[in-house]
Specification:
Elements lengths: L12 E5 L3 H12 L4 E5 L8 H4 L31 H14 L6 E2 L4 E7 L2 E6 L4 E4 L1 E4 L21 E4 L14 E5 L3 H12 L3 E5 L6 E2 L8 H9 L1 H23 L3 H18 L3 H6 L12 E2 L3 H5 L4 E4 L3 E5 L2 E4 L4 E3 L2 E4 L13 E3 L6 H4 L18 E3 L12 H20 L5 E4 L1 H15 L26 H8 L7 E4 L11
Parallel strand pairs: 1-2, 1-7, 2-3, 4-18, 7-19, 8-17, 9-10, 9-17, 10-13, 11-12
Antiparallel strand pairs: 4-5, 5-6, 14-15, 15-16, 20-21
Helix pairs in contact: 1-11, 5-6, 6-7
The structure holds NADP nicotinamide-adenine-dinucleotide phosphate.
NADP nicotinamide-adenine-dinucleotide phosphate (NAP) binds next to helix 4.
């Protein structure tokens, strides 16, 4: 590793952390840009990230399948309108094979430390390996640290207990088995109907009801797959249509556009009204906050499942967990053989727990002690030549994270190309640019549904959503070209010529 300087363009070395959707993408993009000194450090033994980890029954993506693919690698043979988790995992493995990504990956190496000094990053892993590179691209994803509920007695439960992101497939769930599920988020809405279908006796512990949008899913016929395989234009049209709907309905509905907001609101309310027959059950499932405040759940199976005889919705709050069940605040003991924790993730860890240490020994925990923030979600002052993919205020929500990573990937490449042209040796965001960006985002957040009176994983400790409050188009526009006036650059060979562009 290390830089090779040639007369024309110097070649950078790049470490990519993580071989999930974004890590695979970065290898392909970097190679397309002629950058070949790439090392991907992956903590597990396979690519796939989220889709490798989440194998719970019913796991699927609620972004239309043809939109949830790399733009350069369409897949005409998706089996469903909303792809299932296993098929998405296969897709990423296929892309990694096709583009020979695996040869750049060191599997089973979890990064423990990444430290910047004098123009280079030194990265250490749990295998006692050390790598040195000019750039680090952190492709560690957003929702990868399961959150365990802080409920008394959790450790005393003697049955089988696991988080949805760590599903234990050895545990047999079916008729005669009593299953408790804590949580009613997007994951639970997919898993619960499958558990109910198995014949098990399923108790769902709901702390807060959720709004559900019933976008119909359907299986794609063999005939349709053949047609799509023959017609790339049709696949592209399908993708464009999905992007249009997500952009002009979902994104706008939650970012303050009146018509879309009302449409989404009525749609969800009508869904509740006409899907749930029993009035008392319907009221238990009715949220008391505005539609879109929590991430809207796209699902057609939860309401059907929860009305089955072997399903019980429990809205009495949990008091404690015992060795064989859950006691609710009203004193009722609910017997349980299996306890499923569908309690979400810690979304604010980003690249942590790794020790990310920037200029002058600045640890990321200290840099982010007051607030988790980054310039355009990607760059941090005091962390030169470092890019965080899908960082805070990326337009996550009900949109394709693949599309976001592609936009960010192009931005990273443009920045590295400037380094190759020797415009600088070090580049980092100016603190004032981070502030300006955060003020701009904060201004936009005021009009969004996310501050509409609910608790959600979107909110940081100050109650500010870590999302992008403007349109997708606006974000793409702003990410198109690096604005060098927002950057602090430095040439190391001529240190005195430090220049703030
Ligand atoms: P989540 O949306 O954060 O939901 C966690 C659930 O656990 C909530 O119902 C929460 O209740 C409950 N909970 C947490 N701690 C609890 C406690 N101590 N006692 C009782 N209940 C507790 O997590 P998720 O369902 O895993 O979804 C997270 C995100 O993953 C989604 O928003 C989405 O971005 C992504 N996801 C996407 C898909 C997809 O199809 N693309 C599928 C699954 C997940 P409260 O609401 O009261 O906090």
């Amino acid at each position: 590793m290390g830089s090779v300087h040639s007369k024309k363009k110097r070649q950078p070395s790049v470490i990519v952390i993580g071989a999930g959707m974004t890590g695979i993408l970065m290898v392909i993009k970097l190679r397309n840009a002629g950058i070949t000194d790439i090392t991907v450090l992956e903590k597990k033994d396979r690519v796939g990230g989220t889709w490798r980890e989440n194998t719970y029954p019913g796991v699927a993506c609620d972004v239309p399948a043809h939109m949830y693919t790399y733009s350069f690698e369409p897949n005409p043979t998706w089996s469903n309108f909303f792809a299932r988790g296993g098929e998405i995992q296969q897709y990423f493995e296929h892309v990694a094979d096709k583009y020979d990504v695996n040869r750049s990956i060191r599997f089973n190496e979890a990064v423990t430390d990444a430290r910047y000094k004098d123009g280079q990053w030194t990265v250490k892993t749990n295998q006692d390996s050390t790598y040195v590179a000019d750039f680090v691209v952190c492709a560690t994803g957003i929702l990868h640290h399961p959150a365990f509920p802080d409920i008394g007695g959790l450790d005393e439960f003697e049955g089988d207990m696991f988080h949805t992101a760590q599903w234990n497939h050895d545990v047999k769930i079916g008729k005669g088995v009593k299953v408790g599920v804590i949580g009613t988020g997007s994951t639970a809405a997919q898993a619960i109907p499958e558990l109910i279908k198995s014949g098990a006796d399923v108790s769902v512990f709901q702390r807060t009801p959720q709004w559900i949008l019933p976008l119909a899913d359907f299986r794609v016929s063999q005939k349709m797959k053949r047609l799509l395989s023959k017609s790339p234009r049709l696949v592209s049209l399908h993708r464009k249509f999905s992007v249009f709907i997500m952009e002009h309905l979902f994104t706008k509905a939650v970012t303050g556009h009146f018509f879309q907001k009302k449409l989404l609101e009525y749609w969800c309310k009508l869904n509740l009204r006409f899907s749930i027959k029993n009035k008392a059950l319907r009221e238990k499932l009715r949220p008391n906050y505005q539609v879109g405040c929590k991430r809207v759940i796209v699902n057609t199976t939860f309401y059907k499942g929860i009305q089955k005889d072997n399903a019980h919705l429990i809205t009495e709050q949990i008091d404690r967990i015992t060795k064989n069940g859950i006691v609710t605040k009203d004193g009722t003991h609910h017997d349980m053989d299996v306890l499923v924790l569908s309690t979400g993730f810690n979304p604010f860890n980003f690249m942590r727990p790794m020790n990310l240490i920037g200029r002058e020994e600045l640890h990321i925990d200290r840099a982010w002690q007051d607030r988790i923030k980054a310039y355009r979600s990607m760059m941090l002052p005091n962390y030169p030549n470092f890019f965080l993919m899908l960082g805070p205020n990326t337009p996550i929500g009900n949109f394709s994270v693949i599309a976001m990573s592609e936009v960010q990937g192009d931005y990273v490449i443009k920045m590295i190309q400037k380094w190759q042209e020797e415009q600088f040796d070090e580049v980092e965001a100016k603190p004032e640019a981070v502030k300006e960006f955060n003020d701009y985002v904060k201004q936009g957040l005021k009009g969004t549904a996310w501050v509409g009176g609910c608790q959600s994983w979107y909110l940081d400790k100050d109650g500010d959503p870590i999302l992008w409050p403007y349109t997708w188009k606006q974000w793409v526009k702003e990410m198109r070209e690096p604005q060098m006036e927002h950057m602090h650059t430095k040439s190391l060979s001529t240190k005195e010529s430090e220049k703030a562009a």
